[in-house]
Specification:
With 201 residues, the chain is of the alpha/beta class. Strand 6, helix 5 and strand 7 form a beta-alpha-beta unit. Helix 1 packs across helix 6.
């Protein structure tokens, strides 16, 4: 069951199939860290059956994108050149990027596995914050299980947890009863905090 109500999946994982082995390890590390930090599982739609290979556009992939709360792209030179990945992005961006904004977050997450060519990895939806899983000195991806890889997984999970929490709270209404005059300041502080977390007061 998804962390975000009303969605079959929390994340749709978009990546070039040449990056499949890395994507599998990335997904496992992400899921474990999310569970440690929240006590819950994050559900991820990933094309593990190679639906793209030798087929026309698979409706199952399109459904996976539409049923996910957020879209997570693993960007690499192969990703940027992939027609399949371009089609996946086109579906999620049908209503323009601003429609995917939730508070200060976007429902389109960008993980940079390997940079290039040139600055193409930065130019892809440049307004989006990205999490960089590569060594800036040599441009190679961070080895799975390394301290740097683990630190980036933690940074990404913080961002995903905040986004999914906002999406979970969106539309939920809370009532704060009026209190004594001497706690008015605390009540207002609570109201602002709950609004920042996506609740309607």
């Amino acid at each position: 069951m998804a962390f975000v109500p009303g969605h079959k999946h929390d994340l749709f994982l978009s990546y070039a199939h040449a990056e499949g082995a890395w994507a599998d390890g990335f997904r496992k590390a992400l899921g474990e860290e999310f569970h440690v930090r929240t006590g819950e599982d994050v559900t991820v739609w990933q094309d593990t059956r190679n639906l793209r290979v030798g087929q026309k556009w698979a409706s199952e992939i399109e459904e996976g994108i539409r049923d996910a709360a957020a879209f997570l792209a693993i960007v690499s030179p192969c990703y940027l050149k992939s027609d399949w990945c371009r089609q996946e992005r086109a579906i999620v961006l049908e209503k323009k990027l601003e429609a995917l904004k939730v508070e200060s977050f976007y429902r389109f997450l960008k993980v940079i596995k390997t940079p290039g060519p040139g600055k193409a990895h930065e130019e892809l939806l440049g307004v989006l914050q990205d999490i960089r899983f590569f060594n800036p000195a040599d441009g190679y991806e961070l080895p799975e299980g390394s301290a740097e890889f683990t630190a980036m997984i933690r940074a990404l999970v913080r961002q995903i947890r905040e986004l999914l929490t906002l999406l979970s709270n969106k539309g939920q209404e809370l009532y704060i009863a009026p209190g004594a005059i001497d706690i008015l300041e605390e009540r207002e502080g609570l109201e602002y905090e709950l609004k920042d977390r996506g609740f309607t007061i």
